[in-house]
Amino acid sequence: MTKSWDASAPSVHESVLTTPIIEVWDEVLCLPVIGTVDGARTAEMMQGLLESIVRQQARYAIVDLTGVRVVDTSTADHLIQLFQAARVLGVEGVLCGIRPAVAQTIVGLGLDLGAVKTMRTLRDALKWCIRARAESGAESDANVPSAGAPRRGSRS
C-alpha cells in the first residue's frame, strides 16, 4: 500500500511555523505574528491558539502584531473574533505591537477593542500578564486555607 502526498496541503511543520504559539510564562501564551495575514491564516491562528489555551491551561494570551505591516478588514474582524473566543474559554487576551496602519484599519472599521487589552510592546504585554497573574493568584490564595490551617468556622 502506497501513501500519496499532496504537496499543496500544509504539513504539520508548516502549520507550527506559520502560527507558533509559545508559553512565555506560566499560564501565559504568546502568538507572534509575522508577515501577511489573510482569512485562512487567521482561522489557523484561532484554531491553534484555542487548542493551546485548553491544552496548556493558559489564563492569558498575547497576540503580537509587531511583524504585521497591514491587515485588511476581514483579517481585523477575525482578530477580534479570536479574542472573543479566547474570552469564552476564560482567557484574558492582550494585543500588542500594533503598527499605525493596522490601528487605522481597526479604528476605521469601527471595531470594538473594549474587551481586548492593548499594549504597545510585547515586553509591556508580558509584564502586564505577569502582574495580573500575581494579583489574581494572591486574591484567590487569600481565600484558600493552607493545608494545616483550620478553616473559618471550623472547630479545632
Characterize the structure shown.
- With 156 residues, this protein is α/β, with parallel strands linked by helices.
- It has one domain (15-126): STAS domain (Transcription Regulator spoIIAA).
- The protein is built from 5 helices and 5 strands, in the order αββαβαβαβα.
- It has a 5-stranded mixed sheet with strand order 1-2-3-4-5, sandwiched between helices.
- A hairpin with a 2-residue loop joins β1 and β2.
- The longest helix has 21 residues, at 122-142.
- The protein is globular, with a radius of gyration of 19 Å.
Structural class, judged by helices and strands?
A: alpha/beta
Mean pLDDT: 82
Residue windows where pLDDT falls under 50 for at least 5 positions:
1-15, 141-156
Task: Summarize the amount of helix as a percent range.
Answer: 40-55%
Give the domain tally.
1
The number of helical segments is 5
Overall geometry: globular
Output the radius of gyration. 19 Å
Question: Remind me, CATH topology?
Answer: Transcription Regulator spoIIAA
Number of β-strand runs:
5
Give the strand order of the largest sheet, numbering strands 1, 2, ... along the chain: 1-2-3-4-5
Task: Describe the structure in brief.
This protein is an alpha/beta fold and 156 residues long.
